[in-house]
Amino acid sequence: MNVRKTIFFVDDVVANLNIGKNMLSVFYQVFPVPSAGKMFDTLEKVIPDLILLDIEMPEMNGYEAIKKLKADKRFADIPVIFLTSKDDADSELEGFDLGAVDYVTKPFSAQLLLKRIEKELLIVQKEKELVEAQAELKDYAENLEAKVREKTEEVFNLQSAVLTTVADLVEFRDKLTGGHVMRTRLYLKAMVDEMVQKGVYESEIAEWDMDFFLPSAELHDVGKIAITDMILNKPDKLTEEEFNIMKSHAMVGVEAMERIISNTAKHSFLEYALRIAGTHHERWDGKGYPIGLKGNNIPLEGRLMAIADVYDALISERSYKKAFTHEEACKIIEESSGTQFDPALVDVFCNVKKEFEQIAKKNAD
User: What 3-state DSSP class applies to 236?
Assistant: First the structure.
């Protein structure tokens, strides 16, 4: 099960806090914290999986803060990555001597910071797995019946939360895209089946629970519930300002999933839905939105949905455009390999494009 990790972003500059939250919130639950003192207040309520800690802060700087963290057994094992404009070897060495696991200089790139965080969280995860594996196996065998009851209750709560969200989506749904949700789910299944057969991204897909991944795709546009009908159902082409408002649905979708997660048991279904909602408009070349992720830094779920979503938009007639033919849509997607779309997934699409055509015809608006 994919569990959403919690990160404290500690910096006394408000602009940096906003940038950090926007950059990381697609992947993690982020707590922006304006000072080291506030960090320790927050630690009394929430224990994060990792802390991004600015060094140069008033009252208590990063070096003083990490000394206090390491002196408290409740917080000593939390990995700390220093963020600073200092780039001299002595400052970096001092940070490592005090117990930091990494040291990132400002200004940093989103891709680099995400990779550093991913690396440190993976190390922590593997260490925990080594310690807990044997105990978990024994506990599972001895408490199987209790676990089944717990899982049943978890799924029931999950279904209730999702049904509530879907009801809201139906109430406010886009009247111009009937059948889109069902078709995109079927497109994804066709692509995933082909990927499994051909061994494309085999290790990543092997960890997915298909019973939850495919249904989660139906919530990829859940953020549109916050878009006004005047824009969502506008019969003409959107203005630049209107399009920017429309683009906000990706982050709104992330926020909607976060609200559900906060009110029910964490579940891989919700994690899939969150990543798809937040990243299916990212582009392979980094020119997409909402945060401009590039290449394999875009979650595989989002890269898959990007192709399914664009194909269905192309072949669908709208009041402001005619539908492209299946052949025209395929050509556009193929020509966008390496720019808008993951080349490996475009190859998969080419292998199943006939299935896409059949799905579209069978499930027309």
Answer: coil
Q: How many helices (H) and strands (E) does the chain have?
A: 16, 5
Instruction: Write the pLDDT tens digit of every residue in 77-136.
Output: 999 999 888 777 887 788 888 989 888 888 878 888 899 899 988 888 888 887 787 777
- Domains, the chain: 6-130 (3.40.50.2300), 149-362 (1.10.3210.10)
Tell me 247's DSSP state.
H
Kind and range of the H or E run holding 32? strand 29-33
Pinpoint the alpha helices (H) of 266-342.
268-279, 300-315, 326-335
Three-state SS for 338?
coil
Q: What is each CA distance from 333 to 275, 287, 307, 361, in whole angstroms?
A: 22, 16, 7, 19
Torsion, CA 83, CA 89, CA 95, CA 99, rounded to 10: 120
Nearest CA to 62 among 42, 28, 37, 45?
37
> Is 71:257 a contact under the CB 8 Å cutoff?
no
CB atoms within 10 A of CB 326: 18
Instruction: Tell me how far apart the 2 most distant CA atoms of the chain are, in Å.
Output: 66
**Rounded Cα–Cα distance for residues 216 and 253 (Å):** 12
For residues 26 and 275, is the Cβ–Cβ distance under 8 A?
A: yes
Measured from the Cβ of residue 30, the count of other Cβ atoms closer than 10 Å reads 21
Angle at CA of residue 267, ends 261 and 269, nearest 5°: 100
pLDDT of 258-271, one tens digit each? Answer: 887 777 666 777 88
Tokens of 201: 């991204």
Amino acid, res. 166: V
